[in-house]
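Continuing the batch. This is chain 6 of the set; chains 1 through 5 are on the previous pages. Same settings as before, nothing changed between runs. Recording input and output for traceability.
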Amino acid sequence: MTLNRRSILGAAAGLALSLAALPALAQDVLRVGSYPANPPWENRNADGVFEGFEVDIVNEIARRIGRTAEIEGYDFRALFVATASGRVDIVISSLTITDERLESQSFTQSYIEGAMGIGVREGSEIQSLEDLRDRRIGTIATSFPEAYMNERAEEIGFASNSSYDSTSNMLTDLMAGRIDAVVNDVVGLRYAFQQMTGLTVSHEIVTGERFAMMMPKDSPLLESVNDAISAMKEDGTMAAIYERWLGTPPAEGSLTVTPLPIPTPGNY
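Output for chain 6:
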């Protein structure tokens, strides 16, 4: 069989149109990085599907900016590399805004005021930060709780701070007695302890930390994503997601329902 010149030109034109469409299709995807074992904020369920408070938020953001969220799992510390390298467009994982992080990353406005908890075995005498003196503790690598505790190492006087890549490994060591306590997001700890027997939150540490989504520095999507979050706060969508995953409506005037500007150092 032979092809005439018109057929060849037609095929070439069709291929060119198909290739030209590829970048446009890629632009329709919002590449999301997430730590896959952080319920109720985000978690990969038994079917391999991500679900959780921040998953619902990022899916709604994607819809509002005309994209589809595609979520990929990373170790917690790898999330920072993923944004810095541009491998993802946005990261969800109950991330705390800090001045140090704002030097190399951008953040959306916050939507939750977080707190930390001390997790211990039931019956433990550890009931406060002061009780951690000479104790072996555990935190997640590169997390806000790890930095918070290490900055206060001399003041608190704990014996050691083991750094973990996963919450499950950290809690397994706590259960086995290899460490005496863990310090992590209090909501996540309480959620995990509903599924585990023998562990409890003995003390809550109010820090004023604010959770937000992290993006590559000065991302061109930052303003539209932040606007979408503001709209979700204003129309009740954010409050509905909060109540679905945390069991109660957000407080009136809280970060969850108050639109905020894009964070800058010292102003978030």
